[in-house]
User: Which sequence fits this backbone?
């Protein structure tokens, strides 16, 4: 009976060690597992263990770099590099010799769920216009010859460019796949260009980038 009572008493403690809100957060296909401590966890005395698997696999794989860590996140970018595959991650905690239960993420598909960051813009100014070169952000994955692989290797990208100035509400001046765009400027006015990437496959836009330039008045 004493043993039975001990088991019943330890169960709530075990459950309260279990990490909470276990989820993937992904930006430009860099995918990191995040979680919150369980209600009984103490920051300096709790370690965490991370496993992952592809949907359909029976066995979980330990993430060795995140096995017995104090941090509340674990980078699983390399483990989720087949970006259109569905993955799961899970975390458990241990403190004072008591192991909590595993807590698992929802199914996670990096290609579908990642947030695309803002593009960068190179500007060349002419007399009455500016030439924009739009650069999609890089993914964290490397080419065999070095350098990062661009996001455009994973998605169909559509560039959208908008302009506004002192006397004009924001209006779209370009939408298409060309990454070089010429935009007419209004002389004697502060002209602002806003650009973003639209992902038609996901019906979603990236974060936007804004640049402003003053075009001198015509003589």
Assistant:
């Amino acid at each position: 009976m004493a043993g039975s009572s001990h088991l019943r008493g330890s169960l709530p403690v075990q459950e309260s060690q279990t990490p909470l809100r276990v989820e993937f957060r992904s930006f430009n296909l860099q995918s990191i597992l995040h979680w919150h401590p369980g209600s009984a966890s103490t920051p300096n005395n709790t370690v965490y263990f991370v496993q992952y698997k592809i949907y359909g696999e029976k066995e979980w794989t330990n993430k060795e770099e995140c096995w017995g860590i104090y941090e509340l996140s674990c980078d699983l970018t390399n483990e989720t590099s087949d970006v259109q595959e569905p993955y799961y991650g899970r975390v458990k905690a241990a403190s004072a010799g008591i192991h909590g239960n595993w807590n698992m993420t929802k199914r996670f598909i990096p290609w579908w769920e990642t947030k695309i960051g803002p593009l960068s813009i190179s500007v060349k100014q002419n007399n009455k216009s500016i030439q924009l070169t739009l650069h999609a952000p890089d993914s964290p994955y490397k080419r065999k010859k070095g350098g990062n692989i661009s996001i455009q290797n994973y998605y169909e990208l559509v560039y959208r460019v908008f302009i506004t100035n002192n006397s004009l509400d924001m209006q779209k001046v370009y939408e298409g796949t060309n990454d070089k765009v010429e935009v007419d400027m209004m002389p004697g006015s502060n002209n602002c260009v806003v650009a973003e990437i639209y992902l038609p496959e996901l019906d979603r836009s990236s974060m936007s980038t804004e640049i402003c330039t003053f075009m001198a008045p015509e003589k």
